[in-house]
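For anyone still unconvinced, we reproduce a single protein record, the chain in one-letter code, the fold tokenised, and leave readers to judge:
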Amino acid sequence: MSGICGIVPATGDHSHGVAMLESALDAMAHRCRDGMSCFHDEHVLVGHGLLDTGCNGFALDDDGYVVAFDGRLDNGDQLRASLRDAGGLHAPPFDHLSDTRLLLAAYRTLGDALAEHLLGDFSIAIWDPVKQQLYLARDQIGVKPLFYRIVDDALLFASEIKGLLAMRPDLPTERREAAMAAFVQGEFPDADRDRTFFADIYRLLPGHYAIATRGTFTTHCYWRLDADAPVPRDDVGGEFRKLFLEAIRRRLRGNSAVGSLLSGGLDSSSIVSAMASSRADTDPPVQAFSLIFSDPDVEDERDFIAAVVDQYAIGHATVDCSGVSGLAHADAILGEQDQPPAGPNGGIFRYFLKQIAADFSGRVILHGHGGDEVISHGGGLFGELAASGQWRKLWRELQAVRHVTGAPWPHFRRLVWRRGIRRSVGKMLDYPASFLMRGAAVQRDPLTTAPDGRDRPIEQAAHLKKLSSPIFAHALEVIDIEAACAGVELRMPFLDLDVVRFCITVEAQEKWQDGRPRSVLRNAMDGVLPEKVRLRTDKHDFATHLRQSLLRFDRDVIDEAILKRPDLILPYCNLAELRADWSDLRMTGELDGLALMRLWRAVMLSRWLAMENPPEDAPYLEEAA
């Protein structure tokens, strides 16, 4: 875990640049607990703050090349071999280079193509004194964040928005009205993928690198999720298990003890069980951490957690989050995140991580985040069966899940009409137009069309859309900052690039089997995961705790937002609708999920907008002791 920042000034005069750099690092002090490094000359300033995990760092070589690295390099051995081959007999010894210095050596050989050859989670800044250019790159999935801002033709960049704001506190921070309105409704438009809540602050997108010289800045896409069509495989579970174990192994590297979150769900339980089942007798036991609720009115995952703990001899600690509300530490969270986070579990997760970090000697924790999106539930199988005319099999599959979806007939009728009959008729009507357009250049949509030009199967298209959604990328940034503020680094095996590539090309019939979604993971974990967990099809819903905690702890805060100071959020939401939702929740104790999320987001937006000019008597949500 690191904080990186820097400036490419528009002119040779940057007399205040070092102070700006130090301000950025001070603002990101939670990422800099083991020291700060700065480099500057007349062309560039680069800063690095270290939270040492044994993989990240800062380096300057004898020729003036500089690298600031936040992350972890997973293919160092392959990179070293390719560098030796490129250098021939005169290649310097690469075997003992740290990840940071290896990146610098690789850049000197590969240049702007560096990111294409990297595997891992990374955010990188490299200064090239020969080309007099700054090279920025971000990993393919977007695990590590990087933001930038252009002010008077000067480039400013940092791992967090607060670093950019600290560099130029004299500048007004104009907020984007469109972003705030979309946020309340839970919308994250594809057109805003590189935009933040601030008008002139952008994110470097996942799978992109950027080149900055004095007065110029360009971004380039070096990777995108554009897989081939699904292919039949003889042993999907076995292949996935091999990739999954390797993904976990890659994330154990470093100089720190590694723990793991254990929620009781399929994803985190698979990580802990895989680690525990593959450890040698001489290895220390796996250390797992679980979130529970002692409140009798809120169900938690205790029974499923116990199934894993009982099967394996692991170290285990629990954190009771019953007293943490849906708006707990809201102002602190907004200050840490710099913009409103999308999900309502930030208060609970923040408290959970801080309790873990206070008692755990290590700095690295594995997290099951991304499992839903990467493995995919496989629900597109139903549409594929309807589209291919396999209606008898479709009926059987719908019968198998009637305990979840209800009576199968309405779903069967809708699928046959929409995916079968109407889709076929639409293709026939489109045929004359496609015939006339034959030979004309048509831009391919990688979400719906495979590289060979064929339409993607329904399940694969839906799978790609979920992985490519802006909210998926935004959630990764939120998680990274939450972890940094707690003083730990979260590593997510399901976001391993090899795992992602594999899962995207698995056929729908392998993802959904015998009435159970996510069958790829279930089959792979057969014999490893306790059956109680492996075969479960439900999942803990935090909505009950959120509803109850808002009523118990946060009435004054919600009243402040939508009744006493509604002017702050009035331009961005339907105030009458919000007030009706709040009234329903107070009267009945119930509120549907969409309305609950809308209410929570509106209050968070109000708190964020109030942070600049709070009234003297405004309640402030103080830190929990």
